[in-house]
Design brief:
This protein is of the alpha+beta class. Helix content is 33%, strand content 19%. The protein has 17 helices and 20 strands. It has a seven-stranded antiparallel β-sheet, with helices on one face. A six-stranded antiparallel β-sheet has the order 7-8-13-14-18-19. A hairpin with a 6-residue loop joins β11 and β12. α4 packs antiparallel against α7, α11 packs across α15 and α12 packs across α14. The longest helix is centred in the middle third of the chain and has 18 residues. It is globular, with a radius of gyration of 22 Å. The two termini are 30 Å apart.
């Protein structure tokens, strides 16, 4: 699968770091690195393993968007998001909104083609080697992770209605509990087939044929031709400088540009503002503003003009900053006079955004931020019994309103929440960041950027209490601040005082997303952190 002559492998003891949201995935990546792979090989092995051990958040039936840095100095976006069926028709829906689950929310899954493109650009080990751990995990079984067990309990009413989900995750009608053995023999066979035959097994082979047959029986217009037409897009990233460091991310249809807006707006705030404390309302209004821009403009640039230069231009950002400083809320929503804690609860409803991030870097100059997803927990709620593949619900992010930039159309990719991040200082990659968090990913990255520039290491930055505005998922309302219980009282008070309805969560709650971070040290080594809200682990090798 690799068309590029690889560089000479570095010693397995050379500086390297990897972070992923499940320890077994990190182990798979670290084993590949020890066998002579580079950071991209390691990230791919971890990502493939995650489709087995974290099936509520990613799958072979999902999408991928990544940033990869190469030793020659290039940094590239790999956009593995798939399009709606050519025959998709917004008039086929009776209501004003897309359904959140079901066969008609399934767009072409782009993750496998995305893996292949990353491997072609930067992989060293044979393609099939990257699947070894995942096939073993699926065939022999793994302990059900706490995050998976929680999702199964919370999503049981949806999942029990699907024969494939029922068979794999609900033995005797009861959801697998933490530690119970999760075996996925059909998925093991599918992964082995992909290892042997490459992505053609999905896009022009028996795996795709089986998926299409199932989806069409459930009312989807997706065809085998739709799968065969899919290609991965490789482009230049977007970037902005934030406090002396360049932040790089994916262009549309990714929402990455709205992180760059947020960072530029933070730079326009008073430098003594306590944006994560007493002045949290300023940051919340920034998040409202970028959300309004995303909802108004983000779409597939292959079919719609997305005004990236205007949205990142000084004139627009200066105007938005004036509104933020003037106390203007960009989005509507009920302004409540409740006191802090009025909406307090021990544990809020399950978050809707489900995604994984894998980040890695090595001494050779390879670095990657790889984000893959089902969009919502267990995606469409459909598992193909023949292949064991869970299918995403990425199409639920389409709009049905006439004239909307992100309106459902045949062959159009939806506006996309996935947004990988690499950072660069003095021409050298200084960090690889990634988060789970649905539509709140720009907000979570902004929290991390503020923490890191204030001197936190990755572990401390990820473990700090967070809050987000408007939740993670497509069906969550604006005007609500989801606030972890340990967020400083002055920040909570500022948010409520600015008119946000506060929903106070448990400590380290997944509803504010979970992230993975690798940072380059001054001595050329790496530090890494995995979010305590996930089930993750890091692998760090120092010279």
């Amino acid at each position: 699968m690799n068309a590029v002559p690889p560089a000479q492998p570095a010693s397995a003891a050379a500086p390297f770091a990897l972070a992923a949201p499940h320890a077994l995935a990190t182990g798979a990546g670290d084993a590949v690195r020890a066998a002579g792979g580079n950071a991209v090989d390691a990230a791919l092995a971890a990502a493939i393993a995650l489709t087995v051990v974290y099936p509520h958040q990613c799958a072979v039936g999902g999408d991928l968007i990544a940033l990869v840095a190469l030793p020659d100095g290039r940094t590239l976006t790999v956009n593995g998001s798939g399009a709606a069926a050519a025959g998709a028709d917004p008039g086929a829906f009776s209501g004003p909104l897309m359904p959140v689950t079901g066969a008609r929310t399934v767009t072409v899954p782009g993750v496998v083609a995305g893996w292949a493109t990353l491997h072609e650009l930067a992989g060293r080990l044979p393609w099939a080697r990257l699947f070894d751990a995942a096939v073993t995990y699926a065939r022999d079984g793994v302990p059900t992770a706490p995050g998976v067990a929680t999702a199964l309990r919370q999503e049981a009413p949806l999942l029990l209605g699907d024969p494939g989900m029922r068979e794999v995750f609900f033995p005797d009608g009861v959801p697998l509990a933490t530690g119970a053995v999760l075996r996925q023999p059909a998925l093991a066979r599918s992964l082995a087939l992909l290892a042997e035959r490459g992505p053609k097994a999905l896009y022009d082979g028996e795996l795709g044929a089986g998926l299409v047959e199932l989806l069409r029986s459930l009312g989807s217009p997706l065809t085998r031709d739709d799968l065969a037409r899919h290609t991965t897009e490789v482009t230049e990233p977007l970037g902005t400088v934030f406090r002396g460091e360049e932040y790089l991310t994916a262009p549309p249809n990714s929402q990455g540009l709205h992180l760059l807006q947020a960072l530029a707006l933070v730079e326009r705030m008073p430098r003594d503002a306590e944006l994560l404390g007493a002045d949290a309302s300023l940051l919340a209004r920034i998040f409202d503003a970028i959300t309004q821009d995303r909802d108004s403009h983000l779409a597939d640039p292959r079919q719609v003009d997305v005004p990236v230069a205007e949205l990142l231009g000084a004139a627009h950002l200066d105007t938005v900053a004036e509104r933020v400083l003037g106390g203007e809320r960009a989005l509507g929503g009920e302004r409540t006079a409740s006191v802090p804690g009025a909406a307090r609860r021990a544990q809020a409803a399950r978050p809707s955004g489900d995604t994984v991030a894998v980040v890695a870097a090595d001494a050779e100059g390879y670095a990657v931020s790889l984000i893959q997803s089902l969009f919502h927990s267990f995606g469409s709620g459909i598992l193909d019994p023949g292949s064991g593949i869970v299918l995403h619900n990425r199409g639920s992010f389409f709009d049905l309103a006439p004239g909307a930039p992100n309106r459902l159309a045949g062959g159009r990719r939806p506006a996309h929440t996935l947004m990988p991040v690499l950072t660069r200082r003095d021409g050298v990659i200084s960090g690889a960041h990634g988060t789970m968090g649905g539509k709140a990913q720009p907000q979570i990255h902004t929290h991390l950027a503020l923490r890191l520039t204030a001197g936190d290491d990755p572990v401390r930055a990820l473990g700090r209490p967070r809050w987000v505005i408007g939740g993670l998922g497509v069906d969550e309302p604006a005007g609500v601040a989801s606030v972890e219980g340990s967020v400083p009282a002055e920040a909570l008070s500022a948010l409520v005082g600015a008119g946000y309805r506060a929903e106070v969560l448990a400590e380290l709650d997944e509803q504010v997303g979970h992230g993975q971070v690798v940072r380059r040290r001054e001595d050329g080594g790496f530090d890494a952190g995995t979010d305590p809200r996930s089930d993750g682990a890091v692998a760090v090798r120092r010279a």
